[in-house]
Amino acid sequence: MLDTLLTALTDLMSVQHLSFMMLGILVGLVIGVLPALGGIAGMSLLIPFIYGMDKVSALAMLIGLVATVPTGDTYTSVLIGVPGAAGSQATILDGFPLAKRGQAARALSAAFTGSALGGIFGAFVLTAFVLVAKPVILAFGAGELFMLGILGLSVVGVLAGKSVARGIASAGLGLIAGAVGAAPATGEFRLDLGVEYLSDGIPLVIIGLGMFALPELTDLMRRNRPIASETSLGSGWLQGVKDTFVHWFLVLRCSVIGTICGAIPGVGGGVVDWIAYGHAVQSAKDKSEFGKGDIRGVLAAETSNNSLQGGALLPTILFGIPGSGSTAIFLGGMVLLGIQPGPSMVTTDLHLTYTIAWTLTLASAIGAALCFLLAYPISRLTYVPFNLLAPAVISTVCFAAFQVRQSLADLVLLFVLGLFGLFMRRFGWPRAAFLVGFVLSPQIENYLYQAVQFYDWNFVTRPGVLIIAALSVVSLWAATRGRISETGEMTGAGQKKGVPAGSATLSERAPQIAFALLVLAIFAYALITCSQLNFLGAVFPTTTAAVMLVFSAYLLVALVFGSPRSSPSFDQELEGEYVGDPAVGSVWTPVLWFALLFGLAGLFGFIVAMALFVPAFLLARTSIGLLRALIYGALAVGLMIFAGYMLVLDFPRGLLQSLVELPWPLR
What is the pTM assigned to this prediction? Predict the structure, then answer.
């Protein structure tokens, strides 16, 4: 045991480990500052860079980002009232009013201090729980691990969205997407549509970027105005730190809430901040200032949001079940590095578990300190119109995507999944459930295969399997109580301003019906094609498709024959919270810009496409002028070429390269 601790400490304090951790922290701060991108998109950007890296260094970079994104996303929530990520929504309720009073510094200071303490608490729980969990984990066999994956999916499916059926169907879509490619038991190719690119499966990075980054970028690009006009932070940096320690018991309670919620797969950052905020309101004697600028609201949301990371890593590392969307990507990164989550993390790889926990502690503290130091320059960045930042962000997303296989098909798949993710988001199909289903798919299938090989189908009678199955049923039953049904009243961003709920006609719901039909067709295709395979290659996808056909058919029937209140019209869903705002453009405009970039890449190659796209976008969407647009474009292309040179990458080829042999980097 002592040797393990010394190995972990040596890894933690090495210059290489600390350097990569700092790199992850800096990337996390940038991702956190950009509104709405969040940890999933950030982790997806880093995954391509870990290929061939040392395990400890790669984990340091990933953990640095995981620890810092929930701290960095506080800037936009407090300064401009726009959530930096799903987990910072509750921060807006009191953080933004404090900023409007001239107390932005106080709100940020309290948030950063609470974030550091919450992150350290979550890391401490992760460290302590490893010792307690070791005998429990070693008692789990393949059958129990398979059923544990089902439990994780049952929780994810019902907690990720307002509709139980849509949540479960979204998780099912992820399972089917994860089954694309060669079957682990037989090596037979499945669901690849005869496309050679898909025979190796769908890359995790492109799933993360397509389903999360592109839809969020689409919304941000639609804003045709500066995000904010006031850049003063005011005073109160020291007061914010004092507030954190004055309300130390609230900080401790919310840290516990965050850790517990993080350990429950599927709850994630989109829920825990609201739970903690609600607890802060309910436990307060004086509730009058909540929602108007109460520092306790900021502390509750930010502390719980950061302590969640340690809790979410518990099921991820010890059971291979991601506790949140970003840890789902982290789990995929572990697999890419050859690290198998589960029993090995408390036996042969125990030193890695301790390294992860201690890195999370260190990164939480350093990330919060950097947020203090960089507050003023970052606060100015958040007031830049997003259309000025968009070309750089889009370029980074594309660069990360085509590193996977260095193929133009990477960009094509990114665009297709981006469109699919956009419709899932607008029609209420939870993308987090899709992502976790995708990550869990190969693991669940492998555990099923191993359980059948070792125990035949008698594994379902094992006591541990029966207990976990009962927990899955109970969780489904409990979660469906009081949930919004498919024919319930429409609420939230989908309801058009001035239009009463229930006004959507059947013709207006036709696009949503078409989307539901597409989902139904995907499950039907999976069932029909996979049923022709050998039993071990077919059992997982066919069973999944058959079950999901029931849920998707129910959704389709509800849309066609249910009450008009079952969902808003297509235009209402696509416009969301921007309905009636003349300063916000159509949702299709950003989509067309993405299509233009990918089309140019197909014709001329990616570098030439970038050189044409960046100035054209800036000239059309901003007022910076031709000269500045050309300089911006030259810098963007230069940085892209430099990154490609450092990573020894050939950029995606276009039609031009098949006709004319061009030198690097144009080829």
Answer: 0.70
